[in-house]
Design a protein that fits this description.
106 residues, copper ion binding, 3 helices, alpha+beta, 4-stranded antiparallel β-sheet, 4 strands, Alpha-Beta Plaits, elongated, N-reg_PII-like_a/b
């Protein structure tokens, strides 16, 4: 069975997070996405320090599917350089791991 990972991504707003999250689940690239809500981001972009409100989301998938999921999020994303990272999951319930496997991939 595939290792479980969480894919963390930041979006311009809730609508974009929901649209991309739903697409990822419909396309079986992720079993689930949790949209965490607004957060304040402070970052450097084009040699200026920017502040904006963004929306964070966590996608649950298998490690083998994570590269395809990252590519798909990036293709649908409004940012030139979207923040998308893969976080390993050290351990989880076996039935949760099986659920992720069953509902993503194939």
């Amino acid at each position: 069975m595939d290792d479980v990972v969480s894919v963390y991504a930041i979006f311009a707003d809730g609508e974009e997070a929901r649209r991309i999250g739903r697409t990822a689940v419909e396309e079986r690239l992720a079993a689930c996405v949790n949209i965490l809500g607004p957060c304040q981001s402070i970052y450097r972009w084009q040699d200026a320090v920017e502040e904006t409100e963004e929306v964070a989301a966590v996608f649950k998938t298998g490690a083998a599917r994570a590269p395809r999921l990252i590519e798909r999020i990036a293709a649908l994303h409004s940012y030139d350089v979207p923040a998308i990272t893969v976080l390993p999951v050290a351990d989880t319930l076996p039935r949760y791991r099986a659920w992720i496997e069953e509902n993503s991939g194939r």
